Batch of 4 targets.
Target 1
Amino acid sequence: MNEPVDPDNLAKLLVDLGCPEPKSAEMSQQLAKRSKQLAKERNQTQTEAMAYLINLMSQGWAAKDKTDAN
């Protein structure tokens, strides 16, 4: 099952998680596309796939912020 993704809300969430604002719209579109692919590959919902991808991205931004702070 594929749930609809609101790209504007997703872009805002990405910014809140550390995504550079100028890239958030493009990244939200890429995430929506990849979550559909991943859901199909893993036989899971798009919501589950999206949660997995967002978690990975937020970990990456947190690590980058930590590295930049040092």
Target 2
Amino acid sequence: MIHLDIHNETATLKAVLLGIADDFGGTPTVGDCYDPKSKLHVIEGTYPTEANCSAELQALAQVLDKYNIQIFRPENIKGLNQIFSRDIAFVIEDKLVLPNIIQQRRGETHALGALLDQLKPNSTISMPEEARAEGGDVMPWNDYIFVGYSEEEDFRMYTSARTNRAGLDFLASTFSSKKVKGLELIKSDDDPRENALHLDCCFQPIGMGKAILYRDGFKQPEDVEFLVNYFGHENLIEITQDEMHEMNTNVFSIAEDVIVSESGFIRLNKLLRDLGFTVEEVPYAETSKMGGLFRCSTMPLIRR
């Protein structure tokens, strides 16, 4: 029996759902892409292979094993990309939330059956149909839940808009003991450099009171001001547009002082080590071509 327990992004990780790259269906057509970074790599002929993504996921799994983290995997559904397990469900406190994700990805939720069977009764919460969210937009952070979202005009306009006002309101009413802070994101369906697909593509808290931030991922200046005031300017690692495009915010904390990061993030990894973090470098550049990195591939179940 799994006893869910998630209150923030940095407590010591004990159990996680890690995505899989088995049988993900090969290179999609441009028309079948639902994020601009995947679309770019399909057009350029550089979309990753199943073999490369599987190797990168295995390298990540080896790091998790090194820290004695229990790994669960989704059931394999042939022809379906199941790498980014973060989005299809997420844990807050002792509840697993089953959100309404983008239509093109809803088949992924059918792979959670074995995991759900291991949860205590009454451990799951399903969102009502009008409430839309994906886990990459949802960050439990102690007294807060940070939520990246889009107001109705952008939500209707952009496929890359994944969490709406109704989803934000649902989380606020469901977790009423938390302060739910909505952060409106910049969206583009065609230019990955102008798109914050999820909140974790432009912001993420890390240990020791620090956070990684890309200012221009947010639509409202006051949301950036809130984050700067909350964490303190001196505690922010600010990244460039190029670094955002390479997904420098999408690292993954497995303890307060241990972070999994991409091998190619030279500047970021040095900064993290200078701040006292242990940085576990994993090659993940091929997977990132699909618009996600380490946080996207992992759905924490238990942190202590």
Target 3
Amino acid sequence: MSEHVKYLTEADIVSVVSPADAVDALRKMLLEKASGEAQNVPKSLGAWTGGAMHSLGSVMHGAGFAGFKTWVRTDKGGGSIFTLFNAETGKLLALLEARALGLLRTSAITGVATDLLAPQDAKIGCIIGTGDQASMQLRAMSAVRTFSEVRVFSPTPERRASFCERQSQRYEFPLIPCESAEAAMDGADIVTTITRASEPFIHADMLSTCKLFVAVGAILPKRAEFHQDVFDKASRLVVDDLENARRGSREFREKFGDDLAGWKGVETLDKIVAHAGQPPEGDGLTLFKGMGMGLSDLAVASLVCRRAHETDTGLSIAPQTRENLLEADLEG
């Protein structure tokens, strides 16, 4: 790659990497994580009245990349940036606006998890939530399973109707707006939640036909999407990262406590990928909790950076050497 530092906007990112590309990148990253060639830096969180800030770090030793995503969210909005480095030299490679990056990697982990953990014959899908992430979640699910229909629920009738109308143009299967979460989940094989719920709203009896429950909303310690009885129903528990789940998942913390020694039986997705796991058979429920991890961002960001250099996409910034900076300072 060029010595120039790339600045990549949201539009630049989606122009060079597709959701399918992101799924492939995450599969490769999970194999590296399982082998010990890649590692997360645990998420750091800070909060104040009306706002919160986060940082996710990671390194892929084999691929030679390291990076951090940092973001701030307030009642009035938020922003995020990903900083990509060469893991061998420490040189800055790129700065990426990180909203699209987050959409890609969150949906991609759902795609990988659904492909690995859902029965091959799953036909009826369900999405709870119609925010920015929901359309990408739908793309990820439908890329790995062939649905006969997908039910949709969010609390605002206009939003769920609008979502179904917009998204139905992309798919051959119908999208059905439902008046309640119970109606949307009734008969569903795969249920995906992507909400900012502050209190749990899903009970085990609402998942009576569900084979895979993908919970990728509620990634802050004060938020929750499902009640504790879901753990009693689930025969398999999977997370993307144990430490991030321990730090940030209210649901899992309430069940297993703060000490990871007590989290026996909770699997990680990288181990399942490494062992070529197959979707389970039978009527058991698999629960996958995706918290978001730095390696997911890094896997997509490094691919974006490579593609951007290959296609001359984005703004190229000439690097500053230490000597140049010192001279400029002295002359000033």
Target 4
Amino acid sequence: MSKLVHLFLFCLAHLPLSWLQNLGAMLGRLIYCTSPRYALRLRENLQQSKTVRNYQLLTQQVKQSTAETGKGTLELAIAWCRTPEDIAAMVKQCHGWELVEQARQQGQGIIFVTPHLGSYDIAGRYISSRLPFPLTAMYRPPKLRWLEPIMQSGRSRDKGRTAPANASGVRILMKALKSGEATIILPDQVPSNGDGVWAPFFGRPAYTMTLVSRLAQMKKVCTLFFVGERLPHGQGFIVHIEAANKPFCGDKEQDAALLNAQIEQMIQRFPSQYLWSYNRYKCPAGVTQPSHTEGSP
């Protein structure tokens, strides 16, 4: 099964980008039309964000979001199967790389933080190709077991490494940072019980990881946020890299609120490219629901 899927992904990856994205847009709309649960969550999360103000704009944004989500799904084939040189050619601009160079000159390990926004896998592969050392990404095994070896082989190619989303994976990330290397984390993943705190996300409490701020407290570590903006009509991508708006202070709740606030700002720049179908507000097993909604920082 894995071999057949890998062959299929390889064929997809070598289609012209515009063709691949058109197929992805159709796939996204098909899933929206055939999965009521998926459609409801996407609409509810998008409405909760208040990035659109009326029903007509909401309907338009839903259509755009379903298409962009489908594009992102098929773009995984590029990230997992194309060469670093091919991927670099698709990135038309990169803003903020001087921040990476500054951190390297100071001998700092780098935490790259990106939400489920735009083409985060392709942007991650691009960043990895420009670094002189490995980029270690934390991951969660997919629910479909046969997909894991494909995902692992795709993400651990060249200078890429992976670390499981558990205590041993955190130790791998810390070791990489102490060695002056880099890690990549998706901060809007819902952590398991004990690994997060409740913090506001678009006006509603979301169980938020504390890992980013914990790692950021390490000595000689720099935290950078990035997003891979998807350009229209298969034109490619732009990678945006920026520093944290405010430094983390060490207080779990305050740091989680700061993290979510920066993620919100990034999403508001490219709202249709966020993965609104993700169950961001779920309550993990064993976690007590928040008693009230806290305000943003």
